[in-house]
Write a structure and sequence with these properties.
This protein is an alpha/beta fold and 637 residues long. 34% of the residues lie in helices and 16% in strands.
Amino acid sequence: MFDLRPTDPDSRALPEERRVALALAEAIIPGGAGIRPADELTLKLTEEVTDHVSPWATKAFRAAMGLLDRAAVLSTGRRFHKLDRARQQRLLQKWEQDPVLRGPLTAVAFAFKFTHFDTPEVYRSLGGKLNVVQNLEQPRWLSGITPATEWDADEEIECEVVVVGTGAGGAVVGKELADRGYAVVFVEEGGHYRRDSFTGSSVQAHFDFYRGSVSLGNAPMAIFMGRLVGGSTAVNTGSCFRTPGWVLDRWCEELGTDAFESERMTPHFEKVERTLSVEPADLKAAGPIADLMARGCDALGWEHRVMLRNAPGCQGEGFCDFGCRTDARKSTNLSYIPPSIEKGAMVLSGLRATEILRENGRAVGIVGVDAHGRQLRVRSNAVIFSGGAIPTPLFLMKQGLGGASGQLGRNLTMHPSTGFSALMEERIDAHRHIPQGYFVEEHIKDGILINAAQPDRNFAPILFPQTGDRLMRALEDLDHIASFGVLIADDTANGVVYPGPGGLPIVKYNLTGADVKRMHRGFVLAGEMAWAAGAKRLHPVCVPMHVIDDMDDWRRFRELDMSASDLMLTSYHPLGTCKMGKDPKTSVVDLNHEMHDLPGLFVVDGSTVPGPLGVNPQITIMAMATRAAERISEVLG
């Protein structure tokens, strides 16, 4: 975990703006009940994290704090850091209800909570436990993973297929081709991490394992994508949903094909599920929240299910999004990469693809750059790009490819998601159980997925939008808090990705009125389930109402006319930015995943999935990649 020390503990020596930032941090997280208050370390870590996510995130963070400081001057005649503690707390409470200021306050508080509760001392005071793994086994296949910095840059690598990316798309299509006898080289921008690296630190995880971005629009969203061997499969919850039948029907209608009919896709789903050892989550490991959800759903007459997961034997010993501590979850770095290596494939980690090599109008390899800035060349008969729905279109744009249809980087869907918590009479002990072990099936066809979403101790405070003393009081009940995720299927595919200054991604995405109504309905449904199960208090992760204490509050919440800016959203499922289709005038790749304008270059990842699905897309991407391998093998002969 991060354990940095403040470089200048004397806040009086700090510049004025920094003193304002520190005062806001101290007021938002005042500490109590054995929890250390925010301090200079909190501020330092927060600045580093926002810089890592995006320069846009840093600018937005600073702008929000400046706005709050100006509001303090307008309200009191004094800057925020010059107010006494009582006045600061009254201002925070006022801003939480202010339609203009509650958004900036929520964003600033989110950033401070994310870092502060992850510092070792605070994490331990909340009951968190560090992961300590030593003496890892050294299986033979590890020799097939080579850091790019260790490869001789003068030695050109030759293979039949080079696959850029090792997540749900790349690892699967590469393994399937290796099984067919092709010589495969995987290129992965991120590093190779094993379970001794998965300490449980949220900050460290996002530095080492994630590629972050932020969408710009009427409801800004943090977007998280894996950047390591295994891609997002190595830092997700392991939830396994097949593509719903009605979604496959939509694809066939839109694409004018029967290639994605349920009957034709079923063998691909089955093959993926066998490889991943998909099975129902253990109910005991899912924890008391499973019984709570079943109780509430039964009272309402709703369908509900234990979650299918690619984690046989999982006992809920860590927060999956920070990496699996036990290797129970069969992410692609454990389920697809090792057998690929056994078939002769190799993996170059820490190598960022920068160029597609072309000869005679075909893709014949890639050029990559390692951490030292050295160029490595991999020559091949075919190139498969599997970077994900945001990196892939950006890369293709830089190569001058895929733009003829006008669809590259467009049609982005995000699966906007948020949280909802309930205070229960019984102990929930969320951090001791599988994060996503149970879900409500009843409303998926309506575009609403409600599932258990049990965070570790260092992440749980983010689910409470309140600040100051009200936040600390809420955390006193953490052992009895049941947390749920609310995910919606986007109403339209209106998102756009394009390169900004320095090549950084700019993601534009707006929630429609229908999206906002659907999210509000998701809140209401989650609340009804919680009340029916015996909840004493509700905590929706939204700006207008942080706490719902009784039925009068609940009626007001149900009647809220929410706006997009009232929502606190994240996205882990960007999809759709390299549109698939038969016509080069309206699509980027064909039904074989091959680029219309460059033979030999294939795209196999979430960017070719016509979203939204309304469920976690891991199995969908992997089944499509399994199909893609068949098609690519036929194309290559």
